[in-house]
Design a protein that fits this description.
The protein is α/β, with parallel strands linked by helices and 202 residues long. The chain has helices at residues 26-38, 62-72, 83-87, 92-102, 114-118, 126-132, 144-148, 151-155, 189-195; strands spanning 13-19, 43-48, 78-81, 107-113, 135-138, 160-161, 177-180.
């Protein structure tokens, strides 16, 4: 494995949690802890992105976000990575293709909040993503109904798994997705940016 990339043994169950983490906060950590438990994962890799193509304004510098994420995470099963920057990828589909090639013996699940599912059809190659990796969706405040009626949820309705099947999602043949209602921390990066001083040093 290349230097700087996460280490993974054959058969490891890894949840991929991508985002700008601008800034990382307790909500990201809470979702990750729930995903580890509910989806029976061995690790979660935070893929701290260089930037989000769907957002006009760029995030804080990557090294600052990485440092903040590492300072927040205490669970050794949650790994903070700059994998996308190392790979030179900008879209989730590109990143997944590269990770599948680098880790052919690892079982991956893509993790995202319910708000991401609501707008998932705007992502580049979103249909390919649905057909290529199991997806675990965790509810966030106010997003449950919108997510369940989203274009992605409707188009891939046949791939929906019941919450009781969450521990086996990582073994499912995609398209396969599972929607979990979990106790949520009602906090967001945008809220912190709006009311805090996260970007003041930029």
């Amino acid at each position: 494995m290349r230097a700087g990339f996460p280490k993974a043994t054959k058969g490891l169950r890894v949840g991929l949690f991508g985002g700008s983490f601008d800034p990382p906060h307790a909500g990201h950590l809470h979702v990750s802890q729930e995903a580890l438990k509910r989806f029976r994962l061995d690790r979660i890799w935070w893929l701290v992105s260089p930037g989000n193509p769907l957002k006009q304004k760029g995030p804080a510098p990557l090294d600052r976000r990485m440092d903040a994420a590492r300072g927040l995470v205490r669970n050794p099963r949650i790994i903070v990575t700059d994998t996308e920057a190392r790979l030179g990828t900008h879209y989730t589909g590109e990143t997944l293709e590269r990770l599948f090639a680098l880790y052919p013996a690892v079982r991956f699940v893509w993790l995202m909040g319910a708000d991401n599912l609501a707008g998932f059809h705007h992502w580049q190659r979103w249909g390919w993503i649905m057909r290529s990796i199991p997806i675990g969706i965790l509810a966030r405040p106010g997003q449950r109904i919108l997510a369940r009626t989203s274009k992605a949820a409707q188009m891939f309705h046949a791939g929906k798994r019941p919450a009781a099947a969450a521990p086996r999602l990582v073994l499912a043949q995609p398209p396969a997705w599972c929607f979990l209602n979990v106790p949520m921390v009602n906090i967001s990066s945008s809220g912190i940016r709006a009311y805090g001083d996260w970007h003041r040093e930029n």
